[in-house]
Amino acid sequence: MRDGGSVVEESEILVEKRDGxxxxxxxxxxxxxxxxxxxxxxxxxxxEELARDDGIRCVVLKGTGDSGFSVGMDLADMAxxxxxxxxxxxxxxxxxxxxxxxxxxxxxxxxxxINGYAMGAACELAIACxxxxxxxxxxxxxxxAKLGIVYPLEGCERFxxxxxxxxxxxxxxxxxxxxGDELHKMGMLDFVRVEEELExxxxxxxxxxxxxxxxxxKGQKRALDAIxxxxxSPDVDYVSAIHDMVADSIRSxxxxxxxxxxxxxxxxxxxxx
Length: 273
Description:
With about 270 residues, this protein is of the alpha/beta class. It has two domains: about 15-210, Alpha-Beta Complex (2-enoyl-CoA Hydratase, Chain A, domain 1); about 215-265. It has twelve helices and ten strands. The strands form two sheets. It has a seven-stranded mixed beta sheet, with helices on both faces. It has a three-stranded mixed beta sheet with strand order 6-8-9. Strand 1 (about 5-10) and strand 2 (about 15-20) form a beta hairpin. The protein is globular. The model has no long low-confidence stretch (mean pLDDT about 90).
């Protein structure tokens, strides 16, 4: 992993840091970025490392090659596995669940940039992100019924929580993929741009988020996740914790700077303190 806009391969994930945000790219273009245990584990480790980097305040998740994001789990690999191994791959405690948990636990927003297919497990990875941006080539769906598989309950809950039960039923009962503008209407994409503008728009949005007040961005993500019912542990008083974050932010130097910058009609210079 290197800074300054340069790229280095970490297993099957490409990591690039630039302008306060990082990109993580699935790097199996010859397999249409199909997901494997190794790739998902590399994704988890990369997110955990970036979470410890105070200079990274947004992450963009994307794919390499012409196929876009990812076609989902590597079915050729799954065909060689025993049923128990495939169950462990996608169920609680397995590589897919750990990667999704790492996306949701990342302290700052994670953006899915979807230029092409995001199917099955890859679709759930995108749904776990805070924002999703696509283009006219974007295709998303959950074809588990075409594969004879019942999708894990945790995944069904995530789709329903994010998209609503009606849209989730449409996805799973039809096993179809849906495209660009229709995905936006369904709430699966937050923004749709023409393909030529997709990367530029996504990176500029990531830069904007990275320039916002860190305490505010982290606090808002935690509050919204608590409302959505994500990562609410019985051992943690989330209401009190979030109230404390509100109070801390109001007392922060960043709050003083933000108000002063507004009054002086200039860009604020936030430090995260």
